[in-house]
């Protein structure tokens, strides 16, 4: 603000308002002096207001610096997204998985069942990563990475590592006399390799900004970890190479004058024509790009001449020059990118912004307003001192306004913060350095004065309304909005605050919902179309396995004797057998669903793990501590790992985000949920056909009205004898639990649906509580108390209990159909039949076709010797089975069951004789071997059931979910936020239906989350879920 402008405006306003009172507007006029001082103060306010918003939001407070808590995110936070395109997936894999040089992601278009949404990943790995164990690790890493970032209704079908397709170029080159042949050779090999298999280059943010890329282009896609990969560098896989292009590349290299001879060989044969075809699932490489010992100087395929003279190459020098080109132009290493943290140093302190300097300190001394009072030349008469006090009182009005303004400016970061503890939108402070303030403002001390000031300001602060409007502004910055009016209309029970236990308005709860949405905005914006990660536990389990091994390693090393070391190794093996990591995962999954405490589960796990093990106490404690740590990690993952769409919708509609937990667990007999009483300990369900406890509501209300008027109400209506105990539980009527909850969660949350009547029972006065919420039942007794106060307290608890149930069960299960598809590969088995086509032997277990064929090829050797057979006693203890084995491995068994050992012995003799008969014959034993597929459960599945389809399973009993308008809103929110190509089905299940669904769904989900899912169990469980969903679809 400009001082002179303010003064001119002030004078003009004064002249308009009081021109007849003032006679002089010159600088000696006291009114002008006051105006000037106020203009100086306003100019100071304007100066502070012009501080950069960055400094204002990050001004330093007292004590340790606190992290920013607002929605002004960095570009590296808010712009990246979960992979959406195929190029995004390629960049993610290349950037995150060490050893992967390039990757191609292909949609599976030839699936036998026609399923859409599946991908196949082809990997080009570095030479150092081609060991079998490392290749398996890379595949697992890629699988886990894809599962963590896959989109809704998409999944990975296969990962394949590409092999190399080698090309050899034979050529004679005439080079200039002023070039070094070894340098030319190195450049030829380098450029040809770049042409055949272009390398992926990583770039920094500064590099791309210098090249003219916009910041939103740089962060378009997943968050870069080791550098930014340009989209244009992600080229398609080469399926053919042109010889003419290779010749052109060689010819363009400086120093090459002429190509005297040129030939390309592949697979040991010369290539005819211009096109070199690249084999499927391979990538082209030069067979001679590594200049190693196999090449002698005179045998190297590329030879050089200067005129008519041959040039003797120094292959060692050429190799060194080639590696120097790699070092110069290719990054053979990866460095993690460093992003600026959300921390902008500010030159300001909060106190510097808020500190108010009283205008009274800058008035001329003759006014006597400063702390020094009147000058010595002026006599301090009572009249003069009174005038000074009057002027102080007059100025204090302006000073308070300006002090409050600076308090507001100093707290602007709180105003824009996402702090749920914020309880005001207007901030105030005392003008503390105002001289003799204690004589102007009421209060015994500054603390009392400030409290009174804050109470006064709060009285005129429409905080909730202003906070809502500000949050709407912050939401609008991201193009988001809440359906505020409608949510307020249908949020019938939202007024109960779950954390504090006190009543809050629906508007206040809406503020909290918006705050929660904005706090999670980076996640729900970035991952809005991400599916849930069914491999979330993989890394946690892997870490735990490593940590267990690390606990035992020092113990093994401290023993010198090998026998002692073997004992510790044996104990470690026993530990793993006592309690497998898979069992640890199962327990964590069960805990997440049923809401058990991690400490209790970890203790049980540790007991199983340490069973019969005599370990040092320090090691025992370390194992228990490790177990608890990883149990908590797994529980946290299972509770938070949901689809991005589910999380987003729950935040938009202020629903419970329960993660992978049961929606009906609260109705279990043994349910114990934090903050919620046991349902069955509180409520008893009785049949509505039981006649006792009903009253005529109209008659009772008429009697109450007469009593209030002092009239005689007449005799009380007769009551049927009571057989139920109304003192221990609330007794409600309903055909079943589902019907009861539909009623109570919609109507039992309102206090006006309850009525307390003073009645006499067994000669004792009692207050009977009646429930009138269900019009079909009328007014029925539910409880009785000895006093009206007890009745009111318990009713309030009951209503809060129903509100909690509403809150706890307002969840959903998002089921992506593609994850339910059969995933086991076709499993085969062999069968040896005799000449009458009767089976003699068949595979002991199903397996891959190649494995079964190899086993069947050993039958003529193994089954011709009686020693390779054993007789197994079956579980009933009365029957026997013939088994063929190789060492300890069971290969085949006779499908016939025998009830005597003698019969089994005879069968072995027959099989041996039959197999041995083929040794001298012209017909091989393989002619009598048949192969067959494992039978799978047969279910008639809709042809497009697995393709781009998902089901939202919702409970029908919560209050809002019974509201058809709210259902329409929820369906609309899902449709708006889900990818447009996905079909969404909505199913509302009652309690019994939900129990049946969850029993099947959680069994499948647990197996799907397993470190090593078992087949065919996984597919069988999936088929049960599919059958249930199709049943819902038909109904």
C-alpha termini separation: 71 Å
Q: Average the pLDDT over all residues and give the rounded result.
A: 83
Low-confidence parts: 497-501
**Shape estimate:** flat
Number of helices: 35
CA radius of gyration:
41 Å
Write a short abstract of this structure.
The chain is an alpha+beta fold and 1035 residues long. The protein is built from 35 helices and 26 strands.
Key features of this structure:
alpha+beta, 1035 residues, single chain, 6-stranded antiparallel β-sheet, GMP Synthetase, Chain A, domain 3
Question: Could you characterize the architecture of this molecule?
Answer:
- Among the domains are: 77-163, ANL, C-terminal domain (GMP Synthetase, Chain A, domain 3, 2-Layer Sandwich); 164-198 and 235-329, no CATH class; 536-641, no CATH class; 665-803, no CATH class; 817-822 and 939-1034, no CATH class; 829-933, PH-domain like (Roll).
- Helix content is 43%, strand content 15%.
- The protein contains 35 helices and 26 strands.
- Strands 4, 6, 7, 9, 10 and 11 form a six-stranded mixed sheet that branches. Strands 21-22-23-20-19-24 form a six-stranded antiparallel sheet, with helices on one face. Strands 13-17-16-15 form a four-stranded antiparallel sheet.
- A hairpin with a 2-residue loop joins strand 22 and strand 23 (889-893).
- Helix 20 (536-557) runs antiparallel to helix 21 and helix 34 (991-1008) runs antiparallel to helix 35.
- The radius of gyration is 41 Å and the shape is flat.
- Residues 497-501 have low confidence and may be disordered.
